[in-house]
Amino acid sequence: MQKHFFSRGKLLLTSEYLVLDGALALAVPTKRGQFLSYKDERSSCEVIFWKAYCQEEKWLEAQIDFTSWTVMKTNDPPSARFVLQILKNVHTLSGARYFRRGFSYFFSTRLEFPRNYGWGSSSTLINNLSLCFGVDPFMLNEISLGGSAYDIAVAQSQSSILYRLKSREREIKKVRFSPEFSSELLLVHLARKQDSREGIRLYRSRPPSLFLLEEMSAITQKVLHTSDINTFSDLMMHHENLLSSFLKIPSVGEKFFSGIPVFVKSLGAWGGDFVLTRKFEGCEKWFSERGFSSVLAWDDVVY
Q: CB-hemisphere CA count at 13 Å for 292?
């Protein structure tokens, strides 16, 4: 019997980087996510057959020998090796209950958003596989990718969350984040993929700041509860300025949006994927003239 699973993507609104050290973060789910279909069959060939689609286009196909954990055939070796490692980790965490001799396994995934959007192509995959095989998604994420795992929490909760790491434990609280001014918010794609591990290394190179952790946590609470777009805008700018000063690098607004009359806030790793901003008179033309062709309405993206 074929099984089907779905996990939503994510956007991190506050406490990027600092969430690793215990700052309270606010994250929201996207309407679009990733599907996974799975079935197994008795077979003597003992192979994992993997097909991955992005929207309607197949981008990865792989055959994996799970008796030796080697990629037999693929059109994308680095991506196939990444999938192999996650599946091998599933095998380990399940106590070798899955990927048994005498069977073949068939997987098909479909990502609803472009892979360069940074909305959680890996976290949604990890969560779907955890649902499929009954393993701990946070442990699977830890041994496969690392990081704060807020994106796993969003995929698990399928709702907006407050997220905090505390003494190696996770505090996850489902919240309703649906501001009255959401129709005024925009998401702009930078089309510049940022290596999040590189960003984390830069963050880790700075001395820890308890003040910054507390300030970001306070901003998160204020963002969650504000009903005024001007207050929200001020909080976003304050967040950007604090992190820019701490990291000693220009904010994304300074780098790519000089002269814009409204706030611009990084979402996730600085300098890549999406930024959050708000509408202003002539904004469509303003973004178009500067080469930003993917400008999305908040209400079209956030679940």
A: 21
For residue 94, CA distances in Å to 50, 99, 104, 143 come to 20, 10, 17, 13
Q: Which residues of 179-189 are buried (b: 16+ CB within 10 A; e: fewer)?
A: bebeebbbbbb
The rounded distance, in Å, linking the Cα atoms of 237 and 248 is 16
Neighbours of 210 (CB within 10 A): 9
φ, ψ dihedrals at 40, nearest 5°: -130, 155
Q: Do residues 3 and 132 make contact, with C-beta atoms less than 8 angstroms apart? A: yes
Name the residue with tokens 């070798």. 96
Say how far residue 108 (Cα) sits from the centre of its chain.
20
How far apart, in Å, are the Cα atoms of 284 and each of 102, 115, 230, 288, 300? 58, 24, 20, 6, 16
Question: Tell me, what amino acid is at 123?
Answer: S
237-238-242-247 Cα dihedral, nearest 10 degrees: -10
Rounded to the nearest 5 percent, the helix, strand and coil shares of the chain are: 40, 30, 35
pLDDT by residue (tens digit) across 135-159? 999 999 999 999 899 999 999 998 9
**pLDDT of 272:** 65
Task: Judge residue 24's burial from the number of C-beta atoms within 10 Å of its C-beta, 0-12 exposed, 13-18 middle, 19 or more buried.
Answer: buried
- Report yes or no: 52 and 109 within 8 Å, Cβ to Cβ: yes
Could you identify the residue written with the tokens 């048994």?
100
Helix H or strand E encompassing 199: helix 196-204
Bridge partners for 50 per DSSP: 62, 107
pLDDT band at 203 (very low <50, low <70, confident <90, very high): confident
Cα–Cα distance measured from residue 91 to residue 81, given in angstroms and rounded to the nearest whole number = 15
Predicted local distance difference test score (pLDDT) of residue 270: 75
DSSP 250-287: --HHHHH-TT-SS-EEE-SSTTSSEEEEE--TTHHHHH
